[in-house]
Design brief:
Structural class: alpha/beta
CATH class of the largest domain: Alpha Beta
CATH superfamily of the largest domain: Lactate dehydrogenase/glycoside hydrolase, family 4, C-terminal
Oligomer: single chain
Helix content: 40-55%
Shape: globular
Radius of gyration: 18 Å
């Protein structure tokens, strides 16, 4: 039995993400949790002819049932970013939501792999880690900040810019998951870029979320692309931990010592049966990318500390 829970399953990311997870034949049970509407989402998805048995769980009293026995927990829960809203604004709302869900995981499925999508990821992942530490169940191999949307965007934008097949494009994006903490490593691709192209692509990859928020004109943020990116990551993790396929790699925000002073950092990570198998170091950077990394680190350290302090001062 492979049980997967989606926490925040009725939301803008949660619904399409749940659909994509229902399509994965490795999933035998799919538990959907939210504060509203999950029974309806579950009923809808349950009609799809794939193996996963779907259950809907609504409200605090049903969180335990959603989580018990989980192999993988995916957390897209929280409010979306709206025009004019900073990631600090998001933090003030989403931090409490993530703390509650992390407490449920620590209590009901402490050995589960955890994929955190809830923004701001740079702070919510440390929040989950601190909650798990308080319950003495923190396993750094099993906690992931999902930064895959940055990679998905980078692949799309680069392939479009160069007129090449996106299926053969894979750009590493290191650092964190917001603004200047997002560091695309364009020099590691097989393409050549002018400096103007590099700067334009970097800006677009770092602030692609703003592009979507503006285009949706107050109606939400990046939900469909985030659901796709989240499912890509979760499916890779299931391939490694359930199917035991070797050599699967994704960029992800994990506990790491690759950058001194940053307790968490996103680089290429190879998965194994227990989650994180190998963390790759920061790749060779050119001068421009080094400047990006230099700008990333203090902001990232501050974001991480904010999450840690939220739990320690609670």
């Amino acid at each position: 039995m492979v049980k997967v829970a989606v926490l925040g399953a009725a939301g803008g990311i949660g619904q399409p993400l749940s659909l994509l997870m229902k399509a994965n034949p490795l999933v035998s049970e799919l538990a959907l949790y939210d504060v509203v509407n999950t029974p309806g989402v579950a009923a809808d998805l349950s009609h799809i002819n794939t193996p996963a048995k779907v259950s809907g769980h609504k409200g605090d009293s049903e969180l335990a049932a959603a989580l018990t026995g989980c192999h993988l927990v995916i957390i897209p829960a929280g409010v979306p970013r709206k025009p004019g809203m900073t990631r600090d604004d998001l933090f003030n709302i989403n931090a409490g939501i993530v703390r509650t869900l992390a407490t449920g995981i620590a209590t009901h499925c402490p050995k589960a792999h955890i994929c955190v999508i809830s923004n701001p990821v740079n702070s919510t992942v440390p929040i989950v880690a601190e909650v798990l530490k308080k319950h003495n169940v923190f396993d750094p191999r099993k906690l992931f900040g999902v930064t895959s949307l940055d990679i998905v965007r980078a692949n799309t934008f680069v392939s479009s810019s160069k007129g090449v097949n996106v299926q053969g494009t894979e750009v590493s994006v290191i650092g964190g998951h917001s603004g200047v903490t997002i560091v695309p490593i364009l020099s590691n691709t097989s393409h050549s870029f002018t400096q103007a192209e590099v700067e334009a692509l970097t800006q677009r990859i770092q602030y692609g979320g703003d592009e979507v928020v503006k285009a949706k004109d107050g109606a939400g943020s990046a939900t469909l692309s985030m659901a796709y990116a989240g499912a890509r990551f979760a499916n890779s993790l299931l391939d490694a931990t359930v199917s035991k396929r070797s050599g699967i790699k994704e960029c992800t925000f994990v506990k790491s010592d690759v950058v001194p002073g940053c307790e968490f950092f996103s680089t290429v990570v190879e998965f194994g049966p227990e989650g994180v198998h190998k963390i790759y170091p920061v790749p060779t950077l050119n001068a421009y990318e080094q400047k990006l990394l230099d700008a990333c680190i203090p902001e990232l350290k501050s974001n991480i500390q904010k999450g840690i302090d939220f739990i320690k001062n609670a």
